[in-house]
Amino acid sequence: MSDLDRDNLIFDWNREGGDSLEGRPLIQFDEETLRDGLQSPSARDPDLDEKLRLIHLMDELGIQTADIGLPGAGNRAREYITALCREMKDLAITPNVACRTVLADIEPVVDLVQEVGAPVEVCAFIGSSPIRQYAEGWEMDRMIQLSRDAVEFCAKHDLPCMFVTEDTTRARPEDVRALYTAAIEAGARRICVCDTCGHATPDGTRALIRFVAGIVKELGVDVGIDWHGHRDRGLGLANALAAIEAGATRIHATALGVGERAGNTEMDLLLVNLKLLGWIDNDLSKLAEYCRVASEAVGVPIPANYPVVGTDAFETGTGVHAAAVIKAYKKGDAWLADRVYSGVPAGMFGLEQVIRVGPMSGKSNVSWVLEKAGIEPTEERVARVLDLAKRTTRLLTDEEVLEAARG
Q1: Which of 330, 357, 328 is nearest to 345 (CA)?
Q2: What are the chain's domains?
Q3: Which residues contact 368 (CB under 8 A, 6 or more apart)?
């Protein structure tokens, strides 16, 4: 089947009416699993070898930067950060670290850069919303001064700096403008808009990113705009896509969405969606391995029904669905089999469609499983398996199918 014929098999409404990314800068990604992700109450801090393996997988997925921790968190954190920076010298992915807008947090980064001999981006953060200001007892003039001093210190020591406003999605426009203007004038190369509490909707995200892009345009500077989102309302991924449409050039996310409270935007699902939308061309064949390694490293299991990499994602025991997939395979067309009953092609991510047998299965399910095991699907064998399947309340294992077939 030609590519033209395949294009005619699926009409993609997802490409109708959306904002065009033509002429936009390359979408970049900042991987936050080893910093923000570890704030999850369920996560454990991985060993160094696990972190190194994850960094290599991030690099293979085409992720540009990774937040590898807070240098001010203690000796173990600084030791691991130093080792990761050394490892990343030979990779395309580059490191950044999180620091408060306090010089005592940023000063260790100067020593770190001298020790490893490679740049490290400083992500200098400060709260911005009125509720946070009230709770902390902060005055805006003092916040602006702290922000300016932190960014100027970075510029003085040749540290690339991203200025981060926490809780931007609940901040006053005049405060957002004042903080970003001070940081940009002090030398910030990037600014980061944060949905720290998972408050935003896609409409709110677009409005805020466009407002911030307007500030950058007014100042006439070449400054990147980052988006950092959480999913307390379950909107993390949708908001990340909205941020890109509105002009954000780098998106922060974590493997499997691990993070504080309900977690962060899911890096794996963000990459999947951007790949399917044609907005990136990254090789994502290592995506499943990245998710598995991250899950094991932080001690957070992958739910069975998790999209793409969950065990249920490409598995079916439903007769009608399985029959369509099997017919496609029998045409010798793996492309067709991957899409006839799936919005995500498994093969693109190093995975495959799986046919199982259960109470909702038909003869085609049983025949397929038996044929794959090298057993002829006679009517008698198929009937025995279906009889067992209809009496169960779950999918049968392949071993149970074969045992029933043999009588």
Answers
A1: 328
A2: 25-298 (3.20.20.70), 315-406 (no CATH)
A3: 322, 326, 355
Residues 6+ apart with CB under 8 A from 19: 245, 246
Token readout for 379 is: 């009517």
Q: Can you tell me whether residue 370 is helix, strand or coil? A: helix
Beta strand extents in 94-133 (DSSP E only): 94-100, 121-127
Residues 6+ apart with CB under 8 A from 197: 167, 169, 170, 230, 232
Burial of 281 (0-12, 13-18, 19+ CB in 10 A): exposed
The pLDDT assigned to 5 comes to 75
Q: Torsion angle, CA of 38/65/306/244, rounded to 10 degrees?
A: 120
Cβ-contact 240, 195 below 8 angstroms: no
Strand spans (E) along 170-220: 190-195
- Structure tokens that stand for 71 in this block: 């240098």
pLDDT tens, residue by residue, 325-338 = 889 888 888 899 89
Residue entry with tokens 């080893």: 34
Write the single-letter amino acid at 218: E
Work out whether the CA dihedral 181, 186, 192, 196 comes out positive or negative.
negative
Query: 222, 191, 221: which is closest to 208 by C-alpha?
Result: 191
Longest CA span, the chain:
82
Q: Is 125 exposed, middle or buried (0-12, 13-18, 19+ CB in 10 A)?
A: buried
Query: Which of 66-80, 139-153, 253-267 comes out lowest in average pLDDT?
Result: 66-80
Helices (H) and strands (E) in the chain, counts: 16, 10
407 secondary structure, DSSP code? -
275 contacts 234 by C-beta, under 8 angstroms: no
The reported pLDDT for the residue numbered 76 is 87
β-strand partners of 247: none
- Pick from 196, 198, 193: nearest CA to 224: 193
pLDDT bucket at 1, cuts 50 / 70 / 90? low
Alpha carbon distance 308, 247 (integer Å):
27
Burial class (CB in 10 A: 0-12, 13-18, 19+), 201: middle
Q: What is the pLDDT of residues 172-200, one digit of tens each?
A: 999 999 999 999 999 999 999 999 999 99
